[in-house]
Amino acid sequence: MVDFLASLPQLFKERYLDTHENYLKSIADLAHHLYSLTTDGCKLLVDKLLNAGEFSESMKDNNFESIYFRNLRNAWYHELVLNYPQDDFDLRTKFAPWRIIQCYYCVIAGISALIRCFHSAEFKKHDTISTIFTNNFLNNNDRRNFFLPPYNYYLDQNGSFKASNREVITWSYGRDNYIPVIKDCLESVHKPNRRTSIPHYLIQLRNWVQYEDAYLFFQLYGETVKYNLDFSLSTISYGYMVHVEFFFIKLFGWDTLELQFNTFMKKVVKNLEIEPMELLRRYKIYEKILQ
């Protein structure tokens, strides 16, 4: 009988460490350096979004169960699960494939909430959601202003990497080492005649880990490898949620998002006896800056 466990180290290196770890860490490290997401909450990122341009769109909706509000709450829930348990790193990383899946669903639910503000059609395919997001937000000159690097990077239909002149990264190490890896990441999932962004990559990552090689994470050991994955997933999802929430506050007004937040927090604390610390940190900053 062949011992499949003997091949795990090499397979894990080839299929995760040499590819996905580099992709995830490059995205997260660049975001962390630019906005201090794990040390300063999201204050620096929010400040930059406030100075990104004039926000010209607005909507009114008092229906608590509108699909975009439901999607937003879904994104919050997936982020909560992604970061649970908040005080136990070893337990949190024990079943790493499910953390990858939760990061994916957090981002997809977040961008789905955005596109459903403007599209009433029902979208069941996540690839369609990611493409509509890329076309209608990242490729839209006005809305693109409110998505900052690396979250707004994408490839056009011909595979050309898109980053406008005002987004030049002055951090030489990140510019020379991380941006080329992010470009490689996007190229790995690019299809002809389709604009491709990070959510498209997360779809492929989810599919790989859920349907093909989840068992390889038996090989996930070593504090550095575990930390890189934990840090990357949390930072990527956190950054996306800041952009989504900022857009919602500007689009619907502070009072509308505050109602969603307070209701969600009340239910989570009462029913699950958990405080979503990532969301709570962001809310406190929004309350000071955007109220």
Tags for this model:
3-stranded antiparallel sheet, globular, mainly alpha
What does this structure look like?
- The protein has 291 residues and is mainly α.
- The chain has one domain (4-150, 165-289).
- It is built from twelve helices and three strands, in the order αααααααββαβαααα.
- Strands 2-1-3 form a three-stranded antiparallel β-sheet, with helices on both faces.
- A hairpin with a 5-residue loop joins strand 1 (154-155) and strand 2.
- The model has no long low-confidence stretch (mean pLDDT 91).
Query: Which blocks of ≥5 consecutive residues have pLDDT under 50?
Result: none
- In spatial order, strands of the major sheet run 2-1-3
Structural class: mainly alpha
Largest sheet: number of strands, sense, barrel closure: 3 strands, antiparallel
Helix content: 55-70%
The total of beta strands comes to: 3
Gyration radius over CA: 19 Å
Number of domain modules: 1
Strand residue content: under 5%
**Number of DSSP helical runs:** 12
Mean pLDDT: 91
Question: What topology emerges from the helices and strands here?
Answer:
Blueprint: H1 8-17, H2 20-35, H3 43-50, H4 67-82, H5 89-92, H6 96-116, H7 126-138, E1 154-155, E2 161-162, H8 172-187, E3 196-197, H9 198-211, H10 223-252, H11 254-272, H12 277-289
Antiparallel strand pairs: 1-2, 1-3
Helix pairs in contact: 2-8, 2-10, 4-6, 4-10, 6-7, 6-9, 6-10, 10-11
In short:
The protein has 291 residues and is mainly alpha-helical.
